[in-house]
Amino acid sequence: MQKEDTSWFASWFDSPYYHILYKDRDDSEAADFMERLTQKLRLHPSSKILDLACGKGRHSRYLASLGYDVTGIDLSSQSIMYAKKFEKENLSFEVHDMCLPYKKNTFTGVFNLFTSFGYFEDQQDNLKTIKAIKANLAPNGVAVIDFLNLPYVASNLVQNEIKIVEDISFKIKREISNRYIQKHICFTTNNNDYQYTEKVRALTLEDFKSYFRDAGLTLKQTFGDYHLNPFDAATSERLILIFGV
Predict the structure, then answer these.
(1) From CA 85, how far away is CA 212, in angstroms rounded?
(2) For 111-134, what is each residue's pLDDT tens digit?
(3) Which of 5, 83, 109, 177 could be a cystine partner for 10, CB 3.0 to 4.6 Å?
(4) Per-residue DSSP letters for 99-168?
(5) How many C-beta atoms surround the C-beta of residue 171 within 10 A?
């Protein structure tokens, strides 16, 4: 049984306003990335893939369309409830805490995509998640973390923005503070005021290397964008890490 979670991401990701704010995420970009990534990893068509922190399942659905056996897991019951509408023979979804192993020694690939890491207040949970990824991997399996590139974010931070979606005016303030990249979101709807804060740990490539060493994993490749160009610490928008035992 899942324990009750009062972390910021547990309440915000289950909020209907989270899904409104991010309703226009680019599915075509996600599909192109999955095509390139699976080709780069040379995954066999029968591979089992675990989409870790899958959200509403947009990456999972496309991976399944390529023929892979895909399981998506996420802590958000609302996201999983939505994703389950798309379940089929090679695609399933379940509520699960990614800090804990899901099915040991099972998956050819474990994917953690679109900055779905570093949410935790207790930094040991980051290492627990890396160790859980290792436990989920089948022998010779490979894992992927798609994270932001901190130096690029710091030099290109848009501090204030207003985004209007479905007649809701979301006021967004961004900052890097206390080793977190923070996004403060305020809005009013139906005569009620709401405030949420998204927090992602300001992790660097060196931080991930330290996690991998502690977990007994090896960093195999790094890429800097969804086209899988080489990673450059100063200019790359993303930090995409390929690792395994």
Answers:
(1) 35
(2) 999 999 998 888 899 999 999 999
(3) 5
(4) TS-SSTT-EEEEEE-SS-----SSTHHHHHHHHHHHHHEEEEEEEEEEEE-HHHHHHS---EEEEEETTE
(5) 14
For 201-230, what is each residue's pLDDT tens digit?
A: 999 999 999 999 999 999 999 999 999 999
Strands 107-112 and 91-95: unpaired
Three state DSSP letters for 8-34: HHHHHHCCHHHHHHCCCCCHHHHHHHH
Residue 4 has pLDDT above 60, yes or no: no
User: 154 Cβ partners below 8 Å, 6+ apart?
Assistant: 176
List the one residue out of 52, 49, 60, 109 whose CA is nearest residue 84.
60
Q: Which residue type does 9 have?
A: F
Question: Of 73, 14, 9, 70, nearest to 43 (Cα)?
Answer: 70
String of DSSP letters for 189-225: ETTEEEEEEEEEE---HHHHHHHHHHHT-EEEEEESS
Which uninterrupted H or E stretch holds 243? strand 238-244
Indicate the SS3 state at residue 84.
helix
Strands 137-148 and 238-244: antiparallel
pLDDT mean across residues, the chain: 92
From CA 92, how far away is CA 73, in angstroms rounded?
Answer: 9
Query: Residue for token digits 């979101």?
Result: 185
Structure tokens at 194: 């709401």
